[in-house]
Amino acid sequence: MSPQEDNRVPPGTGATTPPTRRQARQSDRKDEVRTEKAAETADGALPPPAAAAPEPETASQTLLQRIMTGNALVAFLSVVLSLILGGLLIAVTDPAVGRASSYFFTRPQDTLGAAWSAASNAYIALFQGSVINVRGTSFTSVIYPLTQTLTVATPLICAGLGVALAFRAGLFNIGAQGQILIGATFAAWVGFTLHLPAGLHLLLVVLAGMVGGAIWAGLVGLLKARTGAHEVILTIMFNYIATNLVLYFLSTSAFQRPGSTNPISPQLDGTAVYPLLLGPAFRLHWGFVVAVVATVFVWWLLNRSTIGFELRAVGANASAARTAGISVSKGYILAMAIAGALAGLAGVAQVSGTEKVLTSGVAASFGFDAITVALLGRSSPWGTFAAGILFGAFRAGGVTMQASTGTSIDIVLVVQSLIVLFIAAPPLVRALFRLPVPGAVGKGSTTPRTPASTGAAA
Amino acid sequence: MKLELIGITKRFGSLVANDHIDLVVEPGQVHSLLGENGAGKSTLMNVLYGLYDPSEGEIRVDDEPVVFKGPADAMAAGIGMVHQHFMLVPVFTVAENVALGNETTKAGGLLNLARTRERIREISDQYGFAVDPDAVVEDLPVGVQQRVEIIKALVRDAEVLILDEPTAVLTPRETDELLGIMGQLTADGKSIVFISHKLREVKAVSDVITVIRRGKVVGTAEPSASTTELASLMVGRSVSLTLDKAPATPGEASFRVRDLVVQAANGQRVVDGLSFDVSQGEILAVAGVQGNGQTELTEAILGLQDHVSGSITLDGVELVGRSVKDIIRAGVGFVPEDRSVEGLVGSFTVAENLVLNRYDDAAFARGLSMSPAAIRKNAEEKIEEFDIRTQSASSAAGTLSGGNQQKVVMARELSRPLKLFIASQPTRGVDVGSIEFLHRRIVAERDGGTPVIIVSTELDEVLELADRIAVLYRGRFMGIVPGTVSRDVLGLMMAGMPADEALAQAHDVQGGDL
């Protein structure tokens, strides 16, 4: 630790930067070193408190906390930077650019022109594949890409909410992948085994998916609360177990199609799938509405309910929560169970929405992308919702991009990874854009009232 | 070495932390900087130590202007700093810590600690530090760790030593030892900048006292000035340092502890068979050096400890074995010893912290749904009543000063009907102005008929508040004595002498001086 550098950063609040959450984080961070070196004011509003030496675990948790709840501007700029770098990568790997660069010193404009057109064409294709197809002949074909984006975003949002909610309770839930798989398995089994009237059947399918995910994640919460095992290790291992468990199920007759030994389940009943939202021309289904409802619910849960108050208190300061009579063990179990239920919804969106069968690949990589989505959304419900849609757009648009310009869809993966990289390194983004260090700006005496953290979290 | 600060100004944006501060430290002097928390003392010292660039002004060493780009420059110029929180690597030995950042190596890049050990022995002998260069730092008592910090500075030939709140972590005896060491150092021609808000120590040790308030020098004082004068200068208004408190009128002994034993995870009995009563309308102070079972005792009462046997009853109801929530609901108000760790959630708003253990009360929540309006209204009332200085009820509690954070915790605990009030270190790190206020609130709670337990390592506080004093030593009470007992008796009891012996000995030595 370099006390010198850390101490050079005075805490305080930006004159024009109201979010109190940021100040709080800043002060959390400074607790690692020594807060009292900070600017001292006479009006008693500052500086942040001195804190005792942190427990060993606190340092890493504070770092995670900083990464998971970073500021919105940094998140936005990270996306911009990643797109720029992605564009460079597209240009460099483009064959036309390669040909033009062989005579770069004679006619450099050829290389630059080729690079520009490669990158811009790829991104135009990405946009057209994810938002609006301007060359579409009918209204349906114009907005089709947007509905594709929302369809792909649905599981991302649900699972992302799970990761975000667990994080707010201080748990780094890497296990969305496994929770989606188990949720999907439960949902699918109810979907193709039971034959029930429309409405009731779908309701049961949704509930089964949520219960599956909740059990899978709740077990992690239980183990952590009872034995102190670390949730990161637990969730990673539970992912492996879930993957292989689903493979095993698909090798049993209960999950296979009659007369077949392929690892694929029977089709779900028509009564067990989400109805299409915009008619047969689009793949968008009612699962998206469920995702919106889930977002509203998580917002309410975190910011307006006593359960959310408990979970946030446990996540932000478990010792203080315990001293205030809040059960930390119960908080861990509950947070994981709710997170799992949300991931389970993502599983339902897959089996009842798009795939309509259970396979071992039903979760694709949604569970891992969900971590990125929650990260980009700063663990807030609506941030996660927006990030989910952005990543949905990347996935939906990437396909079009590859088809129409030959740019590899892997470039989307690179951009996604770069986003995470930049979000995890806010000082880099700030340095590149010459943003002030948070708190370096002095505290204005006329600073407007800051929004409550309850509100700011949304 | 003569050190001068001329017109030092440090701004953070629009905030002026230091406003044209002039300071001259003559060789062989102890120059005290007195000021409340947040007055700008630490900022000034960080400027001097090269951690901050001054916005204006200059630093002169022996009349030569100098610019410090970092602590390395300051150290090279002969300035050493002992931080309030030590900058030591706990698992390293003393010699390794002292060498750190200044290592000499043998051939092949091997560390050469022999020279460092020798220097440590020299310095240790010269000043009577009694520090073993091969001891591992984490095994040493706090007072000795502080000496290691001082040795670190002396090894680098520091002529000016900055001691930032050095006594905050020390026992009364260690404090006396430190004050002795400071005398030796100045006799040797070193000068010391002593930062503190404890008036008694400042008066005892200083040659010159400079008082800082709101970033400005508001005056200098002679060590002969009375504590009341110094306190008034520091706070900017007259403060009463002695608490006006009527004699206690104890009622029924409604809180009873019998044979309480708390075991640590390693099986050690950290609280070892305590039995005592606290009556309604009485303050029992638990004194003792930190780490003698105070934390475990208070946590056991609140239900935070796992291995508890014996009995704790409040109004005849057994508390042992019940959940923290039940005990809070039974009317136990609890101010934990470390507010930023156990008392507050730093990232939560002041309003949320004010209902941290009552968020699900009918007043603030209907079923699962909380009422932000009620929580906000409650916050505005408490901010007014307890004079909590915050930008708004929705500021994060972590941005408040220590004193105001403590007021948030006190406001939360005192704003419901209590059957028992426990406060650990109720004024630790709190400025003089707020101490007075917090003490009055505690006495008011007593006068309202609540049994009160105060745990404090500060003798001043214990003597000021207590109606009776229990001294804890290694998990046992050395006795429960009246609140009027002398400092010496308490000092002996804190060192492990039973009350009757301590009373007899203090009587012999001091002639019964109270």
TrEMBL record, chain B:
- What CDD domains would the database entry show? ABC_Carb_Monos_I (cd03216), ABC_Carb_Monos_II (cd03215)
The protein's matches in Gene3D superfamilies, at most eight in alphabetical order, are given as: P-loop containing nucleotide triphosphate hydrolases (3.40.50.300)
Q: Name one GO molecular function term.
A: ATP hydrolysis activity
What SMART domains has UniProt attached to this entry? AAA
State if Oxidoreductase is listed as a keyword: no
The protein's predominant localisation is membrane
Matching SUPFAM superfamilies, A to Z? P-loop containing nucleoside triphosphate hydrolases (SSF52540)
Q: Where in the cell is it found?
A: Cell membrane
InterPro entries recorded = AAA+_ATPase, ABC_carbohydrate_import_ATPase, ABC_transporter-like_ATP-bd, ABC_transporter-like_CS, P-loop_NTPase
Topological type in the membrane: Peripheral membrane protein
**Can the keyword Mitochondrion be found in this entry's annotation?**
no
Q: Domain ABC transporter spans what residues?
A: 3-239, 255-499
Q: Name one GO cellular component term.
A: plasma membrane
Q: Which UniProt keywords apply?
A: ATP-binding, Cell membrane, Membrane, Nucleotide-binding, Repeat, Translocase, Transport
Q: Which domain of life is it from?
A: Bacteria
Name the UniProt record assigns to this protein: ABC transporter ATP-binding protein
